[in-house]
Amino acid sequence: MITVTDLRKVYRQGKKEVVALDGVSLSVPKGSIHGIIGHSGAGKSTLVRCLTLLDRPTSGSVNIDGTELSSVRDSEIRAARRRIGMVFQHANLMDSRTAAGNVAHPLELVKTPKDTVRTKVAELLKLVGLEGFENAYPSQLSGGQRQRVGIARALASDPDVLLCDEPTSALDPATTDEILDLIQDLTRRLQLTVLIITHEMHVVKRVCGSVSLLAKGRVVEAGELADVAAELDSKLARALLPLPASEPIKGALQAGPVLEILFSGESAKEPVLTSVARHFDIDLNVLAGSVETLGGQQFGHLRVQLADHADYDAVLGYLRDRGISAKLADAADRSDESDFASDTADFAVETGDSK
Question: Residue 51: which domain range?
Answer without folding.
Answer: 2-229
